[in-house]
Amino acid sequence: MLLSYLKIAWKVLLRRKFFTFISLFGISFTLMVLLVVAAMFDHLVGAHAPETRLNKMLFVNFMHVRWTSGGNQNSPPSYYLLDRYVRPLKTPEKVAVYSNFHATPSYVGNTRLDLDLKYTDEVFWQVLDFNFHEGKAFGGNEVRAAARVAVINRTTARKYFGTDTGVVGRNIEVNQTNYRVQGVVEDVPAMRFSSYADVWVPLTTSPNDLQRVQLNGDYAAIIQVKSEADIPAVQAEFDQMVKRVPLPDPKNMKYMEMHAEPLLASLSRQLMNPFTNYGSDGLTLLFSILSGIALLFMMLPALNLVNINVSRIMERSSEIGVRKAFGATSRTLIGQFLVENIFLTAIGGLLGLLLAYVALQLIGGSQVLAYAHFELNWRIFGVALLVTLIFGVLSGVYPAFKMSRLQPVQALKGGSK
Amino acid sequence: MENILAQSAVRLQTNGAPLATASQPVIQLRDIEKVYQTKTIETVALNRVNLTINKGEFVSIMGPSGCGKSTLLSIMGLLDEPTSGVIELDGRPVQSYSDKELAALRNHKIGFVFQSYHLINDLTVLDNVELPLLYRPGVGGKERRERAYAALDKVGLSARTNHFPSQLSGGQRQRVAIARALAGRPEIILADEPTGNLDSVMGEEIMDLLLGLNREDGTTIVMVTHDEQQARRTERLIRFFDGSQVQ
């Protein structure tokens, strides 16, 4: 019986090519967009090398000053603030401090190469799991000695030296300073702001005055905890510390806020600040908005499916009448249309998966986002397919249910040929 | 319900040989009324119809368009419900039967032949003929195929099994429809103007086929027709006018 249902489902799909196309396009396009967005989201905040231990990491990316005049200032913290107040915290296992990356010019012959440069301490290499192609990271001695050593990524090695192998020990000139290459790592996607750069050098080689007393600056920190269970304690100590930080301009500064948060919460606090005014990390709001958009987005093919299914089933009332006349029960008929809808949705789902894969390959390959590497998110695929399936089933079953409750003679009349 | 189906099974074991059927009622209609009600108008399609169809009979029903012939056939075939009155199949009233029980009864006891064939265009001839057996528990794929082939053989269409209805002539389509009605080996065939869409030669062919089924297999046939000549070839002719039996 199932084979017969599938056979007729396939025939119906082929018979109404345009409607099948619209229907499949709706399902597959929606799934594709959801999968691509999910892949980008995962690319931005998922646990990927070198940020593999995200569950044990808290990020300190921004500080927020409220002025007595009512204004706000939101900027990265200074090295001084992180070094003086965050590093000495007792509860964290490790604290890595690093600068944000900035494009700096470098020259290969007469060709200018803009390289993203990041200043880091030695702990940076301990909390992050970089994949070293060759060589190694710089350690505490090099940082304390302000040694002019650098770790570069493979693409930079290829662009600068023409090869990514055997470049350890060679010199690279960045920002008019010569650095000796100490290690070559795999490329890190540019969307991973905390770990990404083309060239990483000891922060002590920075031309800026690191010890200048100011709250805002151009640095960030990653706090590594021993276990996830320690996070509340670390955050509590962090919050206490923030309250103790003296305001450099108490007359004009009302208060200063800074948070140690998981990566997503840290990004969400920045993204949602127009709505939350830094009062919370805004994660609930962010998820609500994203879920709402996803739901709305999925409603489109669902409504489309309802419409198509209604007309599809109505035009088959004669078939329903015949089936009833020859012994099909209402339940059997609902089952038949259920199988057909599942079949249609499954085809749409597979097409969506294929389209998403192609789209992600194209986006990844185009290098619009430097060093991006997108992966299909099977969990999102499963959820989206399930939701589409539910909509498909409901949209198919409702008209089939209505039709199956008709007297056979009415169904036969409705589809007289 | 089970007894009704069991009787069908006993009949099937006779391998299609005609049974002694003298005055054994298979369908009885008592005071059947069918009224179609709209907001403004009430139309009486059947007016207190009393009718008995005996086992092995070939009965034709004639009357002008709109006199209630097809409605009567639909009610006999449990495709429609009367507004009032009692329908008995093999002496058992069926009013209280559930959707599932009525479906099983239609599946086992009744085969339908419609004027407009009502074949499923997306299925092959063979798949169309298999349809009644699809809803019969215990009949496997192999048996379904064999019985569908046998039914198609009976109507002379065994060479067209893989064709689609759109590839057949009107007469061939009606023969497929008859094969479909036969595949479930029902006791009763209800045919609603089976030759209505066919030319006279094809109409005669179909009529010969139905007469053969009645005479050789003892199948009870009730046929609605407009064709006086064909009606006269059947055992009994019932005339209808304005929802009532007049002869």
TrEMBL record, chain A:
Domain MacB-like periplasmic core residue range list: 20-240
Transmembrane as UniProt keyword: yes
Membrane topology of this protein: Multi-pass membrane protein
Keyword Membrane: yes
Transmembrane segments: 21-41, 283-306, 341-360, 380-401
Highest taxon listed in the record's lineage: Bacteria
Annotated ranges, domain ABC3 transporter permease C-terminal: 293-408
Keywords tagged on the record: Cell membrane, Membrane, Transmembrane, Transmembrane helix
Subcellular location: Cell membrane
A GO cellular component entry from the record: plasma membrane
Primary location class: membrane
Molecular functions (GO terms): transmembrane transporter activity
Xref: PANTHER family: ABC-TYPE MACROLIDE FAMILY EXPORT SYSTEM PERMEASE COMPONENT 2, MEMBRANE COMPONENT OF TRANSPORTER-RELATED
Full protein name: Putative ABC transport system permease protein
Source organism (scientific name): Hymenobacter luteus
Automatic annotation (TrEMBL), chain B:
Record key words, sorted: ATP-binding, Nucleotide-binding, Transport
Organism: Hymenobacter luteus
Molecular function terms, GO-annotated: ATP binding; ATP hydrolysis activity; transmembrane transporter activity
Family note: Belongs to the ABC transporter superfamily. Macrolide exporter (TC 3.A.1.122) family.
Gene3D superfamilies associated with the record: P-loop containing nucleotide triphosphate hydrolases (3.40.50.300)
SUPFAM superfamilies associated with the record: P-loop containing nucleoside triphosphate hydrolases
Record domain ABC transporter: where: 27-246
Cross-referenced InterPro entries: AAA+_ATPase (IPR003593), ABC_transporter-like_ATP-bd (IPR003439), ABC_transporter-like_CS (IPR017871), ABC_transpr_LolD-like (IPR015854), MacB-like_ATP-bd (IPR017911), P-loop_NTPase (IPR027417)
Source organism superkingdom: Bacteria
GO cellular component, one term: plasma membrane
Official protein name in the record: Putative ABC transport system ATP-binding protein
Region forming the signal peptide: none
